[in-house]
Inverse folding.
């Protein structure tokens, strides 16, 4: 019985190591971060479109997710991660890294400002989405490869 338990534990540790190694790849990390930001934006857009009722906690959580993920996002673009893992990152990122970082910083700063003056109703969330969407679009137009 102990042998089976030890083998099961060894297999679990091995699989966990593989998952951690995959998640540690910068291409995968940035994909996960963008998915979190996209989901957070989706929560805000749901409020704007009236699909969900205004909820201050959802707004706060969404803005926090955007702020935290975009702050760390530029760190996920080390030299050598230009390709692989079905990346949508344009080579222009590494050519204009300071501009790329400034676009991420603008999104972060705007999300932080919106958190500080938390949008209090559907119309205010709409204005927030417009601001954040413009920030996202400015970066995606320049630094995201299109299919």
């Amino acid at each position: 019985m102990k042998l089976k338990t030890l083998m099961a534990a060894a297999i679990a540790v091995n699989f966990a190591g593989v998952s951690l190694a995959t998640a540690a790849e910068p291409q995968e990390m940035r994909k996960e971060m963008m998915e979190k930001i996209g989901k957070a934006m989706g929560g805000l857009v749901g409020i704007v479109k009236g699909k969900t009722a205004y909820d201050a906690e959802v707004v706060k959580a969404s803005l926090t997710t955007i702020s935290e993920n975009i702050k760390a996002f530029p760190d996920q673009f080390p030299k050598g991660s230009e390709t692989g893992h079905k990346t949508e990152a344009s080579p222009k990122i590494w050519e204009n890294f300071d501009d790329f970082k400034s676009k991420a910083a603008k999104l972060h700063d705007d999300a932080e400002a919106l958190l500080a003056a938390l949008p209090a109703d559907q119309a205010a969330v709409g204005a927030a989405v417009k601001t954040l969407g413009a920030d996202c679009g400015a970066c995606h137009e320049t630094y995201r490869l299109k299919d």
